[in-house]
Amino acid sequence: NTLVLHETKNELQAIKPLDMQELFKMAINSPGGADSLAKLQEIHFRQQDRNAALEFAQALARFQDECPPVPRTTLVSFASSGGKAVKYRSADFEQIIETTRPHLRANGFSISFDMDSVNGQVTATCTLRHVNGHAISAKATIPSASSNPGMSDQQKVGSANTFAKRTALTSVLG
To answer: What would you report as the CA-atom Rg of the chain, rounded to the nearest whole angstrom?
Structure first.
């Protein structure tokens, strides 16, 4: 059994939820029988979902407090459409993963990606999942065309994939 966290007077207190055996006993002893069991089961599952969402929110807040800023180690340099030189530092995908992974694990999180490519657009969906089963997702859609004439079509798609993954990941992590 997991514990339910419940707020009273600005402090969290643990309350033991009903387990399934208790629900069965209540349904058997009630005049509604199977209908009562279905309603109790629905209440039980909703409470589990609320508890998971609360645990997730608390773990995400801890992660965001503990995780250091991601170093911007990659120099980006290109000419703008007007020919002006543009330079800045950015955090690449691997650096974001390296910086966040220990803090994600310590707070019970894992990440996964789904990729889709349609009509010259690459979409990455990053799902942040907690050990309690609760999850949230963020999407990023990026054009796979690139102004870099030295890139093959595959390199353009690969670059867009990485950019979309990085954008979706930073979005889901807040």
So the answer is: 23
d(CA 146, CA 82): 16
Helices then strands, each counted (H, E), the chain: 4, 7
| Residue 114 host element (H or E) | strand 109-118
8 A C-beta contact, residue 23 and residue 44 = yes
Q: List Cβ neighbours of 7 (8 Å cut-off, separation of 6 or more).
A: 13
Question: Which residue has 């990023």 as its token pair?
Answer: 140
Phi/psi of residue 122, nearest 5 degrees: -105, 130
Claim: this prediction has a pTM higher than 0.85 = no
* pLDDT tens per residue across span 127-139: 999 999 999 999 9
**Within a 10 A sphere around the Cβ of 142, how many other Cβ atoms?**
19
Residue 69 pairs in a beta bridge with none
